[in-house]
TrEMBL record:
Keywords: ATP-binding, Nucleotide-binding, Transport. The keyword Transport applies. It comes from Streptomyces ferrugineus. This is ABC transporter ATP-binding protein. Belongs to the ABC transporter superfamily. PROSITE patterns: ABC_TRANSPORTER_1, ABC_TRANSPORTER_2. The lineage of its organism: Bacteria, Bacillati, Actinomycetota, Actinomycetes, Kitasatosporales. GO terms for biological process: transmembrane transport.
Amino acid sequence: MSATATAPDPQAAAPLLRVEDLTVELGNGAAARRVLKGVSFDIPRGTTLALVGESGSGKTTLARTLVGVHRPSSGRILVDDAPLRTSRGRAGAATVQMIPQDPYSSFDPRRTVAQSLAEALDPIRARVKPVRTRIAELLGQVSLDPDTMDRYPHEFSGGQRQRLAIARALAPRPRFVIADEITSALDLTTQAEILNLLADLRRRLSLTMLFISHDLAVVRHVSDTVAVLLHGDLVELGPTGATFAAPNHPYTAQLLASVPGDPRFHLDDEPATV
Ligand SMILES: Nc1ncnc2c1ncn2[C@@H]1O[C@H](COP(=O)(O)OP(=O)(O)OP(=O)(O)O)[C@@H](O)[C@H]1O
């Protein structure tokens, strides 16, 4: 056995994303409130962390802080051990991309798909011609026909638009992708298709992901680790299977108690319920 085969691989060991004691305050003056309270977690490279918690617990605030929309009041965000760089309040596109929740409002209806993707590829020039091949490749990655690139968003179904949103997020070849409730606007069959696409992309592109969802059946299907937010505090963090089997925090147990078997997914470790 060679020495290199046994040497630890620091790249594999280091988390892609590290959030350290992150506190975020929103609002001004007397209305200011701490929405995230000293939150810490790592996401190892190539894995998916699911973030769950009831409405108002701070999930979207965390996502928006990671893309640079909100500034931390204290704490640190590290990508590959370096502080997350933001430009004019936005995280660098090549570092972090977010897939939006609503595929209907996230595209400019006056632009063709190719124009929107060209802008994602090169925000300054946004010219389609030099990037047609890359646009075709992106559409192929999300199983859409590259010949549809000159169509407008309204010519696509909700599920197809969510595929377009995923293609747009992948355009700058981000190292880290945030999916914030990306299936909540879709019917159950389309939800399953999008989740399977995401799982496939994750494998093929070795994506590191933060997957925000209130749907614990989905979370169980897609994530390696799970984190639970309660009023801005991270109350649970652990491997998804172990956490679902034996949660540490009573709030997690309460959330899990309300999850019935889900007929949408055929999980490897359990028979599908119908
Ligand atoms: N710009 C803001 N100024 C002040 N408070 C805000 C602002 N944005 C969000 N909040 C508050 O922060 C809290 C957390 O909101 P956030 O949207 O992060 O929760 P969430 O867990 O994503 O909820 P949901 O599941 O409903 O999307 C809420 O009480 C919300 O009212």
